[in-house]
Amino acid sequence: MNPKDDRTAPWLRDAITVDVVVRLDDEVTFDARNVARIRYRGINVKEAFTVRDAVGRFYRASLRFCEGDVATALAYEAMEADPESPVAITLFNAIPQRQRMLWVTQKAAELGVYAIQPVFTVRSVQADGLAHEKAHAWPGQAIKGARQCRRSIVPEVMRPLSLAEALTTPAWTGASLRVVIDDRAEPAAAGSSGAPTSIALVVGPEGGFNAQEREMLRAAGAAMWRLGGRVMRAETASIAGLAVLQHRFGDLTIAD
Questions:
Q1: 121: Cβ–Cβ under 8 A, 6 or more apart, which residues?
Q2: pLDDT digits (tens, 9 = 90+) for 31-88
Q3: In terms of DSSP bridges, do strands 48-52 and 198-203 run parallel, antiparallel, or are they unpaired?
Q4: Is residue 143 within 8 Å of residue 154, measured between CB atoms?
C-alpha cells in the first residue's frame, strides 16, 4: 500500500514518546497526510486511534484537537503486537443478496483483509441492484471494522467488477496464492506449500459458480479448496475462508 494513502495509519518520522502531546500536521515529525487520515476514519476529539512510528512500532493515541489543517494527539500506550497480518489477502466476493455485503465487509476488515473486490457473477446481485444493497456504505463498514480491531490500515473496497474483469486485476494476477472456496472440491485439494505474501481469495454467490465460471477460475490459476463437509452460506464461507488463511499463513494464532 502506498504510504501516502489516507487508508494507512497516521505515522511519526521519529520515535514516539508515550504521554507527550504532538502535532499530527507537523511535517518535521509527522507526515503531512495525517489530518486527512484522521478525517477519513471519522475520528472525533477524545477518541482513540492507532499510530505508527518510522520503524513500524504501533501505539494507541487519543485525538486532542482537530480543526482545519491542524491536529494534535497524545500517544498513551504501546501496542504489544503488529495489528496487520504478514500476508495481504484480497477478498474477491460475489455480491450476496439481502444487504449481506455490509456485514461481510465489516467482518473481513476485522479479520485483517487487505482489500475487498466485489464481483458480479451469474447468480450474484447485478449492477442494477447495487443501490438496494447499499453499495455506497461498504467502505464505511470497512472503516468501522478497522477501527473496532485497532488496525493501522483501512481495507480498500474496490468498485464492483465482472468475474472476468476481476481475474485481470493486479490483486489477482500478482497474488502468490489464488484460492476459491468450493464445496464441490476434493477434500485433498486444499494443499499448498510455502508461505505466500499475497493471497487472492474467491467466494461465490448463493448457489455457487456455474460451470463456465468454474472453468474460468481454473484457467486463471485458482486452486479449489473445500472447507469441511458442510455447505455454508456465502457470507459464512467468506469469513471461514479468511479465518483459515489467516491461521495458516497469517497472524491468527493461539497465544500461550
A1: 94, 163, 204, 205, 209, 210, 213
A2: 667 888 898 999 999 999 999 887 788 999 999 999 988 889 999 999 999 999 999 9
A3: unpaired
A4: yes
Residues with Cβ < 8 Å from 49, sequence gap 6 or more? Answer: 9, 10, 38, 41, 43, 60, 61, 63, 73, 147
Calculate the alpha carbon distances from 17 to 38, 74, 120 in Å: 20, 9, 48
Question: Residue 177 and residue 201: Cα distance in Å, rounded?
Answer: 8
In a domain, 12, yes or no: no
Of 9, 44, 78, the last residue of a domain is: 78
- For residue 1, tell me if it sits in a domain: no
Q: Smallest Cα–Cα separation from 230: which of 180, 179, 178, 187?
A: 187
Residue 99 has pLDDT above 80, yes or no: yes
Judge whether 59 and 79 are in contact, CB under 8 Å.
yes
Contact 142, 109 (CB under 8 A): yes
Give this prediction's pTM.
Answer: 0.92
Question: In 10 A of CB 177, how many CB atoms?
Answer: 21
- Kindly state whether residues 188 and 166 are assigned to the same domain: yes
Q: How far apart are CA 204 and CA 181, in angstroms?
A: 8
Grid cell locating 192:
499448498
Please list, in sequence order, all residues whose beta carbon lies within 8 angstroms of the beta carbon of residue 253, skipping any fewer than 6 positions away.
247
The CA distance from 44 to 62, in Å, is 9
Structural domain harbouring 40: 21-78
Of 40, 59, 78, which one is at a domain's C-terminal end? Answer: 78
Say how far residue 56 (Cα) sits from the centre of its chain: 19
Q: Do residue 67 and residue 92 come from a single domain?
A: no
